[in-house]
Amino acid sequence: MKNGIFFGIGVGPGDPELLTVKAIHAIQRADVLIAPKTEKKDGSVALSIARPYLKPDVEIVYQVFPMVRDFAEDPSAWQENKEEILALLRAGKNVAFLTLGDPMFFSTYIYVYRLLQHEDVTIETIPGVPAFAAIASASGHPIVEGDDILTIIPATARPEKIQQAMQASDNVVLMKVYKNFPAIVGQLKENDMLRRAVLVSRAGLDGECVIEDLEAQKGRKLNYLSTILTRRETANQDGAEERKECDKR
Known about the structure:
Blueprint: E1 5-10, H1 21-29, E2 32-37, H2 45-50, E3 59-64, H3 76-90, E4 95-99, H4 109-116, E5 122-126, H5 131-139, E6 150-154, H6 159-167, E7 171-175, H7 181-190, E8 198-201, E9 209-211, E10 226-231
Helix pairs in contact: 3-4, 6-7
């Protein structure tokens, strides 16, 4: 029996209309959808985004993936998920792994891909719209232009690494801004990047929240899916356009 195809599909940040045509076609070719989730949460955000395009008879398999930091210490859960995927593929089923944003950008899919890439299976990875690109378009906030240097920083990195990256950059995207928001606000201010900053949580999803006055709300508890776009302040830059902010709770 011929093995099925393994698809890694980026479903974008939240709006189902941001899925690519290729992603939709792959979803509709799939016999099985792998919906990743953490042990702490029920359901799958990626699956909810893709749901308008699912075939009525598609099989949905939820797989729990521990946080990436635990991968080296205990890969057993990852290995079990790999074996489950391989069994489905060897049964001739096409399997699609759904992931938020882009599959090769801060994604659980990267680790699944590495586990499968040396197996005798066909893998097709389909890119998706990352959250920062969707935020930039919706907010009228250019990500980078001209000769500017752009740096994408995980806000979970060590403070000294974040500081070095900010100092070397004209424009910055900060991902995963949820644990150390007050400290990030301080670093943005120190690097003349605070006034031009916009933060969006849950872009394109229910409960989307836009914050422009970051300093005024630096004590706010943020969702894991929170992203900041900003640029270094210069004398010839116009002020940012007024945008709808989330209520200050």
